[in-house]
Design goal:
The protein is mostly helical. 78% of the residues lie in helices and 0% in strands.
């Protein structure tokens, strides 16, 4: 029998963070396995191993489109909150979520060392089982009976057309696509760059944990300022800053003007900036997309998530495959993804006299 008593806000945020973290754990715990996967499955072209990650993400995006209307964690949040309040709840969940990327590579490395690289994929199932049991035992249905819709093809098609009919949702999907593309291209190449380019493969889990913890402050900043500045302006400001940061980093790398001792710190700082950008954009973009369609939040969350994820993979794969032993191509790709993201962010901003 499903529970009926609503969760307290603290436990609800923790549960949502756990559901969000399923994807992060699955991707980040896989990263230490890429060299062994490459050595065994594609020894002639080690760079192909990154396709394991992007294929996983592609499958996730396609699966979200099919199963999303029945199970999307964001819909739970939208059923209970909307607008800036939803963005704050998502930001708090992202703060907790940050702990998972911080420890996932180290856990993955330990699992791989003890049981082989294939065992890390079984760990994903265990993580998901814990989340599922927690949700079934504690989380009541958030959608009231009068707001529920029949699960029929006609109703789903009508909901899909309604979702994509909103300009703000189409803009949010485009901006999410670009943010995801930058993130997935970075994740695809991060382990080889640490290992082969900078010779720091053994310490990769520690560096990755530091990146995750530093970037996790973005969620705190977002929760603090989203009520004052508004979701749209935060998205625009973040993408604009990323254009400048990535463009400047790419320019300096192309000139080979940095002292050798600063090349790795500069790359580490840029990578942290990418994760920081994600923390300041995705929660706000999801809240913007779901704000006008709370009555069909499950469909809206699945459509926006699926389209953005699949489209971002199509952009990220070529970016990741450009890895040539240096971070140069990745820095240029980051600037390339962020610039149209800033354009989409500007298009979402209201007139100065309108509320943020």
């Amino acid at each position: 029998m499903r529970p009926t008593k609503p969760l307290g806000q603290v436990e609800f945020i923790a549960l949502i963070a756990m559901l969000f973290a399923t994807i992060a754990f699955s991707i980040d715990a896989m990263l230490p396995a890429l060299p062994r996967i490459a050595a065994e499955l594609s020894p002639g072209d080690p760079n192909k191993a990154q396709l394991i990650l992007t294929s996983f993400v592609m499958g996730m995006g396609l699966g979200t489109f099919v199963a999303g209307p029945l199970s999307v964690s964001l819909a739970l949040v939208r059923d209970l909150y909307k607008g800036r309040a939803m963005a704050r709840i998502v930001s708090f969940a992202m703060m907790i979520f940050t702990l998972v990327p911080a420890i996932a590579p180290a856990l993955g490395q330990a699992i791989i060392a003890g049981f082989g690289w294939r065992s890390v994929f079984l760990a994903f199932l265990g993580f998901s089982a814990i989340s599922l049991c927690w949700m079934l035992a504690r989380q009541p249905e958030t959608l009231p009976p009068e707001s529920r819709r029949p699960f029929r093809a006609g109703a789903l098609w009508s909901a899909l057309r309604e979702v994509l009919g909103y300009r703000i949702i189409r803009l949010a999907i485009a901006a999410q696509t670009l943010a995801f593309a930058c993130l997935f291209a970075t994740l695809s190449s991060i382990q080889p760059i640490f290992d082969l380019t900078f010779g720091r493969g053994d310490d990769f889990p520690l560096y990755f944990a530091a990146i995750a913890v530093l970037a996790g402050s973005a969620s705190f900043i977002n929760a603090r300022y989203v009520g004052r500045l508004g979701m749209r302006r935060l998205v625009l400001m973040t993408f604009a800053a990323q254009v400048v940061f990535s463009g400047g980093s790419s320019f300096l790398h192309g000139l080979h003007s940095l002292p050798e001792a600063l090349v790795f710190p500069a790359y580490f700082l840029w990578t942290t900036g990418v994760f920081f950008m994600v923390g300041l954009t995705l929660g706000n973009l999801n809240a913007l997309a779901l704000e006008p369609v709370g009555h069909i939040a499950g469909m809206a969350a699945s459509v926006t998530g699926s389209i953005a994820t699949v489209a971002s993979v199509l952009l990220a794969v070529p970016g990741g495959r450009l890895y040539d032993g240096t971070p140069g191509a990745l820095l240029a790709a980051g600037a390339g993804f962020a610039r149209p993201g800033a354009v989409r962010g500007r298009a979402m901003c209201p007139a100065p006299s309108s509320p943020g």
